[in-house]
Amino acid sequence: MDNFKSTEDIINYAIQSEQEAHDFYMELSELVKFNELKIILKQFAAEELGHKQKLSRIIVSADQIGLTQESVLDMKMSDYHVDIIPKKDMTYQDLLTIAMKKEKGAFKLYTDLANKITDQNIKEIFLGLAQEEAKHKLRFEIEYDEYILKDN
Amino acid sequence: MSLKDILSPLSAWRNITREPVTIKDPLNDRPGAPRYRGFHKNDIEKCIGCGTCETICENEAIDLVEVASINAKNGDSGLRPLVDYGRCCWCALCVDVCTTGSLTMSNEYTWVSNNPEDFRYIPGVDKKSWDDSELGWKKPDYDLIPAGRIDMEELKPADREGTFLEIVRGYSRAQAEKEADRCTECGLCISACPAHMDIPGYIKAVREGNMEEGLRLLYETNPLPEMCGRVCTHKCEEVCAVGHSGDPLAIRWLKRYIADQVPFEEYKRILGIQEIEGNGKKVGIIGAGPSGLSAAYYLRIRGFEVSIYEAKSKGGGMTMYGIPKYRLPINMLDSEIGFLEEIGVKFEYETRVGEDISFDDIYTKHDAVFIGIGFEKPYKINIEGENMPGSLQAISFLDDINKDKTVDVGKTVAVIGGGNVAMDAARVSKRLGAEVIMLYRRRVEDMPADQEEIHGAYEEGVQIYQQTIPVELIPDEKGKVKAIKYLKAEMVADDKGGRPRPVPIEGSETILEIDTLIGAIGQEADYSFLPEKYSDSIQTDRGRMIVNENNQTNLEKVFAGGDAVNRTADAISAIADGHRAANGIEKLLLG
User: Fold this and answer.
1) CA distances from B104 to B83, B302, B408 (A)
2) What per-residue string of b and e applies to B481-514 under the rule 16 or more CB within 10 Å gives b?
3) Stretch A72-100: mean pLDDT
């Protein structure tokens, strides 16, 4: 990640990361029991693909690909939750934990990449993507808060 | 005839020149006295359609009727009183007994109309000129229905440490009858109860001292009344009409009273269960929790051959293994389950489906299958160090305690969670002599535990640290729990109207030295027994099986109920699920 020679390299790296995330969720969807979990994972995969497409369209400015810079609430759950290893009998809790961690990783990735970019337009796009990932993470955190931590 | 008899009538003529006294001003109404009992008014928003006014009216002048603009909801029948002034005698008993105080009378007493139908109207709905009048008759200060419930004798908090004696002692006959006397028989409780028990019916049986009738009514919809009479979440009491102006009826304690009075040996005779003629159909039930036991009872009495497969050595599910004895003595459950055995339900204990017998086997051997597996797998807190010695899960901790195993929790225990399981773990730890601190992410008012559990925990000296998020367990030199690190949280409003979210405050790390951590943040179903060819067909929503109105899953012969289906997480909903599933199975197999 430190050997980027150009902005294009950085964008390509981000595109590749989104593709890997998509593949990861698709593989998980084959692994889990119950159609409900399979469908959820396929939705996650589709969202990652959406990010990939947004990155592929980075030519002009953040406005044109619909990214915002608004701040997003961070419940920080993924900061203190331990990692979950994907397995066949994965539960909804496991799945949400994996997703939260993944989104946190993606947020950090885009923030780091943004710091390496000098072109202000593209930098903003990456910061916007970081916020998108933060929003996704918040969505999983709220879901976790509502359904897993119902008694807590 | 005397002369006087002839002349006397003529004396009336002397009044012909006197001024009339009855109508001085025939064009204006004469107002009624300020507290006159005139035509009725009703605050329809306050009225709950309990029908107590209709019941008390000796002249049958009041009928509860449907109103297009009002929908029935929990605690409100959606009906409103219609008054027939051809029958009303303006005694105002309907106002005096009104449970919410919504029904009043104006001081208006004159009303002229050529249409007799006008004199039957729904106060508050059919608008009248006196609706806004402040004057008239209102509910008096005294209560026709005593506002306070009969107190239940309880073990004092100071006497609870070191003992698992049942806290609640139960009503005496005199107390039960007096409490039962407060019931207005409105029946709002019936729809609030997940099992739709005939609550007014069995309360009437208490009042009349007819315990056998009471037991029959209990078993019509609930084959575990001893258990429910002790630990039911009593949603019925939340909607009790009497509760609007005083304490709601102690419905749960009255149910317990009936069940306590009748010896189990008499059950078969009282319930009229003699020799059961089989119908040739077999049903396999997975799990002997409340839903499985309920399904088993209603299927068995209809002639089905019922086998329950239970992983543990006793039935009862979470009520047997999760509820401490001070709330539910084990012998009560044993007796209720014993009765099911007596009527021919077969129990295969220590038979874990997926290990000792396959789901395939059960599926093929039976005409229908009921899955009542409950939520026995605890959610992990998922923090660093959670697996170290000294870190327990509430479910297994409570199970050990109920099995009389010795558990050394040390001097200080931290319990994570705010539900009933967390409360049980905290209160049991207190009985073991520990100082107990509950760490809860939100505020006490957000806790999902029953109010009486929170109250009991406070009474017994449990401390609750609100807005605290556990982040790490710290070991001692031997690798056992030594302390817990937690963050303090601030509550951030949810933009979308949900409950406020706890967000950790930077730099608020706090270390609390403890000997034992007990996690009680919730549980989930363990579906590891279910092969993929079945799990792919059964639809779920966040880990709960989706069922239709008969508690039937997508697989035609597979029914399900209890915690793995409903979100209420209580025994009475599980019992209702079992009953519905029994009806569904009967419909499927016998038409």
Assistant:
1) 12, 50, 62
2) bbbbbbbbbebeeeeeeeeebbbbeeeeeeebeb
3) 78
pLDDT tens digits, residue range A55-66? 887 644 444 444
Residue B160: partners with Cβ closer than 8 Å, 6 or more residues away: B167, B326, B430, B431, B460
Whether ipTM > 0.85 holds is no
**Nearest C-alpha of chain A: how many angstroms from B454?**
13
Give the count of beta carbons closer than 10 Å to the beta carbon of residue B548. 11
Q: Is A73 in Cβ contact with B527 (below 8 Å)?
A: no
What CATH number did the domain enclosing A27 receive?
1.20.1260.10
Q: Please state, in angstroms and rounded to a whole number, the distance separating the CA atoms of residues B513 and B205.
A: 54
Q: List the structure tokens of B443.
A: 């505020």
B522/A152 CB distance under 8 A: yes
Residues of A in contact with B415 (CB under 8 A): none
Q: Which of A35, A74, A93 sits opposite B379 (nearest CB)?
A: A93
Min Cα–Cα distance to chain A from B534, Å? 9
Domains of chain B: 24-121 (3.30.70.3270), 157-269 (1.10.1060.10), 282-369+544-590 (3.50.50.60), 378-523 (3.50.50.60)
- Model confidence pLDDT, tens digit, residues B318-375: 888 889 999 998 888 899 999 999 999 999 999 999 999 999 999 999 999 999 999 9
- pTM: predicted TM-score of the whole model, two decimal places: 0.87
Q: Cα(B496)–Cα(B482) distance, rounded to whole angstroms?
A: 40
